[in-house]
Amino acid sequence: MSARPDRTPLPRSFFDRPVLTVAPDLLGRTLVRRTPDGPMELRITEVEAYEGEADPGSHAYRGRTARNASMFGPPGHAYVYFIYGMWFSLNLVCGPPDHASGVLLRAGEVTVGAELARKHRVSARNNRELAKGPARLATALAVDRSLDGADLCSGTDSPLSLLTGTPVAPDLRSHGPRTGVGGAGAAHPYRYWITDDPTVSPYRAHAPRRRST
Fold it and tell me: How far apart, in whole angstroms, are the C-alpha atoms of residue 195 and residue 180?
């Protein structure tokens, strides 16, 4: 028996495209997270694109480091980083190897395994808040640095994979500046989301940190 069209795994060629093509095309896709406690699935509703060395807002803007090495490919892998000494964020690497582009998963709807996700996100007031923001998404899906470099295209043995899901038509998408990005990359309209979806996180402009005196 063949898989339903929406349950078909996306091939590596899906990721091996320009990041600004991949990012909006991720909306409505299904991310599968496999854990020892059971699977969880997320319908992606909000993303942000980062263009590597060409993008002042990207971790790879100043070149390759031990932290961002996974961004340099190959495509179809995860890039997981730790931020503010507190939270993890999950990115999907795309484009050709050595180009260092990726898409941050900012928000989504947990469609399978919500009870398990709530064990990870005990402070969530309802299921719509489980993955409403990149740190919440990573926490709900039990994502940490151990998943950095995970291959999304290696089949059911992988802890992460991406299914076709239900792609969102262009007229149902919105785009605008990325959340919290300052400097020369602040105005780049590389954030994409499903218009009016209740799981999308609120936009916040960059607020420079004040140094204590």
Answer: 20
